[in-house]
Amino acid sequence: MTATPAPEAAPAAAEPDRPHDLVGIGIGPFNLSLAALAHGVPGDLATAFYEQRPDFRWHPGLLIEGATLQVPFLADLVTLADPASPWSFLAYLRAKERLFPFYFAEKFHIQRAEYDAYCRWAAERIPGLHFGHQVDAVRWNPERDLFEVDYTQLDPAGEAEALGRAYTRNIALGVGTEPQVPEPLRPLAEAPGVPVLHSADYLAHREALIAAEHVTVIGSGQSGAEVFLDLLRARPAGRERLHWLARTESFAPMEYSKLGLEHFTPDYTRYFHALPERVRDELLPGQWQLHKGIDAGTIAAVHEELYQRTLHGGWPDAVLTPGVTVRTAGRVATTKIELHLEHTRQGTRSRLTTDAVVLATGYRERPLGRLLAGLDPYLRRDAQGRPLVDEQYRMRLDPAVTGAVHVQNAERHTHGVGAPDLGLAAWRSATILNALTGTEVYPLPRRTAFTSFGLERREAPGVPGQAPALTPLRA
Q1: What kind and span of H or E run contains 123?
Q2: Which residues make Cβ contacts (< 8 Å) with residue 105, sequence separation at least 6?
């Protein structure tokens, strides 16, 4: 299907109390995808999306020069659900008169900075996006049979400017994730002026880190590898003064085989969702290499940079040690940081004194408790107290609530490793819109993987809300 191109700017709502069909909370790539595809739904689907930041930003601290996405450019906001959408990455290139340069560049994986620029282009044009609006609370109003969404409008400095309320039949939560800081390092990371920072803030501190006498990077994923490589390239040969530490057994490559990637298909998502809660919880920790490993090209670049520094004899002053945990950490001599380390396999301990620490320790789902406190009596939870989420990404609520609360990237416990993956963004958004409208406004494929996960293959439902059919495998 092809949507009508949007106007340059979103008009303000003429009737503030008129209920919306959908209110999105948070505008990251996932809710931006939902907003883009919602704009293509035939008829007048009334939507509004709120974000407390003043404009769209996607991991600005990690837009390191040359760093690429780990998914192909087809994993944009819309293409895998609606290739003809005016909000595709190719449409962005056409608007910027860059289609031919991109064609000749033959790049399947684009740079992160280019993906960020593409999303900002879309965010400036898709109607119904409201930046500088902080959502404070969500409630169900049984008299009106609607959700109430209270928000604070912020001025350019981030200060409260006005209060507002929106009414809506449905909600989409896309509040994203937040940096995860290990407990032993949290006091130092939260102390002002101490050079212990999360990789999410790397670029803002890059010059100071390059100038530091010794830097330690902690974390074995893609971000840790990119930060280490960037610092290594910026420091003189023989005086690198770098440590790279990780809890994992090795600096391992991400699983990127063709069949391995089928864990990021709707087929696997349906299979995972149908498993018992206990089985899902057992599976997830063992799948870390599907999404927390390092791109093979980055590993090769790190090795090549280290190798080049041995050409004239000697070894670079860089220490790479996996299998290590940080037990405790503290300040030494006012300007130094002391890390107390333990090698879990050797059972040995040591101390490392460094001038700065970069924590490439990943992200965690942002807690929803405060935001959804008003809905707590209606929420259905699993044995671990987590919200139950059905196959159409709806939180399970008391039947008295006739509206739906959809979630994006807050359902890894029910939908598996694909929850934070950009490659499933458009498919999930289309699934949500199909469920919300009760029609197959975006036709979705019944099968997406060569792998048959389980002895009974779960096919996609033909009607939104209908349970998927179980297809027995035949010899």
Answers
A1: helix 112-123
A2: none
What is the rounded distance in angstroms from the CA atom of residue 99 to the CA atom of residue 1? 22
Do residues 24 and 49 lie in contact, with contact meaning Cβ atoms separated by under 8 Å? yes
Alpha-carbon span 439 to 443, nearest angstrom: 9
Pick the closest to residue 52 from 21, 28, 32, 83 (CA basis).
28
Q: How far is CA 141 from the centre of its chain?
A: 31
CA-wise closest residue to 163 among 26, 16, 25: 16
287-306: pLDDT as tens digits:
998 988 999 999 999 999 99
Across the chain, which distance is largest between two alpha carbons, in Å? Answer: 78
Residue 8: exposure state from Cβ atoms within 10 A (0-12, 13-18, ≥19):
exposed
In whole angstroms, give the CA distance from residue 102 to residue 115: 13
* Distance from C-alpha of 412 to C-alpha of 31, rounded to nearest angstrom: 17
Joined tokens for residue 185 = 């390092």
**Residue written as token pair 């996932």:** 30
Residue of 207, 208, 222, 213 lying closest to 242 (CA atoms) = 213
What are 190's two structure tokens? Answer: 């939260």
Residue 192: what residue type? Answer: P
Residue with the bigger pLDDT between 459 and 182: it is 182
pLDDT digits (tens, 9 = 90+) for 398-428: 999 999 999 999 999 999 999 999 999 999 9
Alpha-carbon distance 338 to 330, whole Å?
A: 5
Element housing 285 (H / E):
helix 277-286
DSSP per-residue letters across 290-318: GTSSB-HHHHHHHHHHHHHTTTTSS--SE
